């Protein structure tokens, strides 16, 4: 019997689309988008804009600031700039070569702790069970602004009840909802005010801070009643890795982002509902 042939989804053609985006994956509070540079690349990085599909339709399927709707307002409209020039060695630039692609996550905390990204919506989750539109733009090697097509994708439904999880952005913005007044990170115990100072401190390429942001959120979720089974080993491993290091800005501890990346990702997936009991409706 002949083997079945699976036809892959066609990749964006950089010679046709100067910059292209496509949908990758969804969670309840974020959407991953793949960005592909055109035939002249995106040496200075790129920007992504997004808003709910409902707001987009209300504007007549137009983006705010276009010639058709120059003064229009969309409550959900936001953007993020992914820089091709970064300030420190701990940052990874988004200077795409011709036809190069990269996947970025819009929503939750991946923007907040990325020192190569600036966004007024960093740390803010997307709404669950909601359709969004996205587009990308970039200056190519000739200095010409290139804008992608608009694509649509949706977040997954949230999980109700007391056993769901919240992202670090939620805990940072809702200190009155904290179920505890202190946490131990590694072997050091921090009071609530110190934990808030840590959450309010952008990572700037310090893997210890990136890891600790997610560890704080995971421990708050667990203390709040969320099932820890999917992340308990990662929590233990993170505490062992942190040890006696004192987290900035309380101390000056440091870990390389490459050393903490896998644990950070597991903790983030738990907090954002990709694994474990699921994401709460923020």
Short description:
The protein is an alpha+beta fold and 282 residues long.
Describe the structure in your own words.
The chain has 282 residues and is an alpha+beta fold. Helices cover 22% and strands 22% of the residues. The protein has helices at 53-58, 168-173, 192-199, 207-223, 232-242, 257-271, and strands spanning 19-26, 31-37, 45-52, 78-83, 101-106, 117-118, 131-139, 145-147, 151-154, 182-185, 188-191. Strands 3, 4, 6, 7, 8 and 9 form a 6-stranded antiparallel sheet that branches. A 3-stranded antiparallel sheet has the order 1-2-5, with no helix packed on it. Strand 1 (19-26) and strand 2 form a beta hairpin. The termini are far apart. The model is unreliable at 1-16 (pLDDT under 50).
Alpha-beta content class: alpha+beta
Uncertain regions spanning at least 5 consecutive residues: 1-16
Order of helices and strands: EEEHEEEEEEHEEHHHH
Q: Which word captures the global form?
A: globular
Distance between the termini: 51 Å
Range of strand content? 15-25%
Biggest sheet descriptor: 6 strands, antiparallel
Descriptive terms for the model:
alpha+beta, three-stranded antiparallel sheet, 11 strands, 282 residues, six-stranded antiparallel sheet, single chain
Give me the secondary-structure topology.
Blueprint: E1 19-26, E2 31-37, E3 45-52, H1 53-58, E4 78-83, E5 101-106, E6 117-118, E7 131-139, E8 145-147, E9 151-154, H2 168-173, E10 182-185, E11 188-191, H3 192-199, H4 207-223, H5 232-242, H6 257-271
Antiparallel strand pairs: 1-2, 2-5, 3-4, 3-7, 4-6, 7-8, 7-9, 10-11
